[in-house]
Amino acid sequence: LPNSQITTKTVFASDETAIAAATGMLNKLIDVRSFLGQFYLTPLFSGLASDELTDKTQSLPYSEFYTNQINTNNTTVLGIWSGAYNIIYEANAVIEGISLSTSLSPDVKKQLEGEAKFVRAFCHFYLVNLFGDIPLVLTTDYKANSSIARSPLSECYTQIISDLKDAQQLLAETYFNGKRTRPNKWAATAMLARTYLYMKQYADAE
To answer: Residues 140-199: pLDDT tens digits?
Structure first.
C-alpha cells in the first residue's frame, strides 16, 4: 500500500488508530455531502415533503419534494440512499475490525463498538422511514451487499432495536472525550425510545 494508507488490520491494532476510524465514521454523518450533512438532503427535503417547510424557490429539485411529485431521475433521492449506505458500510467496518482485534483496550473496544452500532441503527432507522422496506446491510462484503434484497419492515425494526440495545449496554453514560461530539448511553436510549414510538410500542418507549 502507499505510505498514506494502512490495512484494516493495522487500523484496529491500536486505540489511537481505531478511534480515528470511528471518528471518520461520525464525521461522515455531518459532512456536507452526507445524507444528514449541514442543512442538506434528509433534513431539508423531508421537511419540504411534509408540512414543516415552504418552498420559495419554485425550482428543482426543491419543488418536486414540496409537491410530492418526485421523478425517478431525481439525484437527491440517490444521494440520501447512497449516503446512508456509505456510512453503514463504515459502521460495519468498525464493528468487524473491533471483533477481530486482540490489542485494543477493553474500554475503547466497548465504546467504539457501541458507537458503530448506534450509527448503523440510526442510518437504518431513517432509511426505513423514508423508503419503507430496505436492504439490511450488516457486513462489508460488497459482493453480497450489491445484490441483497429488501427486508420486511418488521425485520428492519428488529435489527435496529437489537443494535440500539447493544449500544445502550456498550456506551458509557458520560461523553467519551468530555464533549458532546460522540454518542453515549443516553443517546442510544433516546434513539431506542424513538424507535419504539414509531412502532407504537408505547410501554417500551416509556
So the answer is: 998 998 899 999 999 999 999 999 999 999 999 998 878 888 999 999 999 999 999 999
CB of 8 closer than 8 Å to CB of 95: no
Task: Centre a 10 Å sphere on the Cβ of residue 138 and count the other Cβ atoms it contains.
Answer: 18
Number of H helices, E strands in the chain: 10, 0
Q: Which of 7-16, 54-63, 91-100 has the lowest mean pLDDT?
A: 7-16
**Contact yes or no for 191/121 (Cβ under 8 A):** yes
Query: Average of pLDDT values for 14-33?
Result: 84
Q: Which three cell numbers stand for residue 195?
A: 424507535
Helix (H, G, I), strand (E, B) or coil at 66: helix
Closest CA to 161 of 128, 190, 120, 195: 195
Q: In degrees to the nearest 10, what's the CA dihedral of 108, 185, 156, 197?
A: -170
Q: Show the cell assigned to 137.
A: 446491510
Nearest to 50 by CA among 32, 75, 67: 67
56: Cβ contacts below 8 Å, ≥ 6 apart: none
Residue 98 one-letter amino acid? I
In tens, the pLDDT along 105-139 reads 999 999 999 999 999 999 999 999 999 999 999 99
Tell me the sheet residues that pair with 134: 151
* Amino acid residing at 134: I
Which strand (E) or helix (H) includes residue 159? helix 153-170
